Amino acid sequence: MSKISKIGVLTSGGDAPGMNPCIRAVVRTAIFNGLEVVGIKQGYKGMIENDMYEMGTRSVSNILNLGGTILKTARCLPFRTDEGMETAYQNIKAKGIDGLVVIGGDGTFTGALRFSQKYPDIAVIGVPGTIDNDLYGSTYTLGFDTATNTVIEAIDKIRDTADSHDRLFFVEVMGRDSGAIALRAGISCGAEAILLPEKSTALADLIDHLKNGATNKKSSSIVIVAEGDKTGGIYDLAKAVQNEITHYDIKVTVLGHLQRGGAPSSFDRVLGSRLGFAAVNALIAGQSQKMVGLEANHIKLTPLDEALSHHDFKLESDLLQMVEVLSI
Length: 328
Ligand code: F6P
What we know:
single chain; alpha/beta; four-stranded parallel sheet; 42% helix; binds 6-O-phosphono-beta-D-fructofuranose
């Protein structure tokens, strides 16, 4: 068992729905176990700028349903420097913090790992919080389910217009280098094609596939393009297809940041609560430099360096095969 007495909690990188339920679980689990909790504002920036406050059980009342993060978040370049890290360390030491829960994605974990290697007297546990679903060691990251549902809602609406006008829509979705949102949303919305960073698609094959759809009397088509896809950018792609397929009026929609906000789904509220609870219990058990994740519906601890080094996270091959069959 560890000697942790005071933990700091922060959210860093892109916000993700489910971060608030996680913060709530961290605060209440810590207090239940007799620990003090400090909320660190704007991720590592708050550590450097000393922007922190003591949190109590009531500081996290009525936040389960809120998107974003009450602690705010930032992508903090100074934390990548030795000077920035040293200032952050001195500030949290002065507050008496001896354990940290960091909620974020791969950038957040890279910072957390470096920090805890440099200052091993501060125990660090990571919680995977990113809509991109791209961390090894957790089947799902916080926010992925909500973001995918948001995308589905938007594409269902686009389908109404596509169908009414016999149009072909290209829709770009987020995910950075991961096609996880694109794949799930594409299956859920019956997309005619899904372009993913993990799988190259030849333009000629895409055009053939869309032409076949038209021959098979499809009145509308939707092509989902993951932002990390390398086929050539959604606008150029749409133009190239329009040159070959003239009977469809082609439109482009980039969904953008609306995918990150909104009330967390039931799944993300429960996942955030489970991971926050598990993160504090891991600190109490003396763990450090680990990520808490969910695998086969069980909590699992993965070393932070492993969670990061297996970054070439693979999409499920059965889903990829199924898409081709179901979109004929
Ligand atoms: O990591 C989450 C994410 O939304 C990615 O899908 C996207 O590439 C990126 O963040 C956008 O970052 P920003 O909000 O800083 O523009």
